[in-house]
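Recap quiz, item 2
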Amino acid sequence: MPEGNEIHRFAKQHAAALAGHRLHVDSPNGGFPDATVLDGRTLKSVEAYGKHLGYVFGKDLIVHVHLGMYGDFWEGQMPLPPEKGALRLRMWNKTDWIELRGATDCSIFDEEKWAALLARLGADPLRDDADPDPAFAVIRKRKTAIGLLLMDQRIFSGIGNIFRAELLYRARIDPMRPGKDVSLAELRSIWKDACKLMPEAMEDRRIVTTRPKDRPHARRPVQDEEVHYVYRRHNKPCFVCGATIKRQEMGGRTVYWCPQCQAN
DNA sequence: GTGGGATGGGCAA
DNA sequence: TGCCCCTCCCACA
């Protein structure tokens, strides 16, 4: 379900609810063989990098979670709810519980494996320690379309299909434009925009990218059909110029853009 | 009621 | 490149 904004929110919320406590851990429907190793241990912290989560129980005892397309957490106050669906991992203390379903990966990493993962992730707009300069340098050398490069987690991390479409629209850049033809100023602008939009989405628990002046009707709260300029708006008129929003397959994912606002 | 698509990425081939 | 993990929602009948 998530892009980086939701991953970082999970990290913050799960740390607030569970870190510093001895936890009960189990895996009612399997898929996570080592739950007994964790049961009764103290969760030290919850880390988020890009779309990856790490639940740190010890130096070589880090539960790596990648939600992929279908994974999701459910959260709540004790008592535990009845078991439902394919429940891969469940953690709880006296007051709070979290449940994990459908993740692409949920397994124990040692320190070395965790470090190797972080080493191959690009700059994350949601992290204060992120340095985007290497990403800019790589993009400026590549013929590959900027729409593909923005999604490459080795270049940037945490940006998914929604932010790709919306960041490129807000920058008025055609997703098909080669990376090397995107100026440094444009790349800096995209990064700055991501550093504003992604934390907002984390707080709001939804991705809103349209500016108030561009919404077709000034209503409060923002209606669902108004939150994106182009993402999933194919065959609908652009809020800004009225042209019909297009969509196309790009690297196995669907990209959306305005052929008039992003004609370059 | 049904079927297709979706915020992701690893894997086999 | 195509398939898979597994869940929800929407368009369409």
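Residues 1, 68-72, 85-86, 101-105, 252 of chain A lie near DNA strand C (CB under 10 Å from a C1').
The two ends of chain A are 31 Å apart (CA to CA).
End of item.
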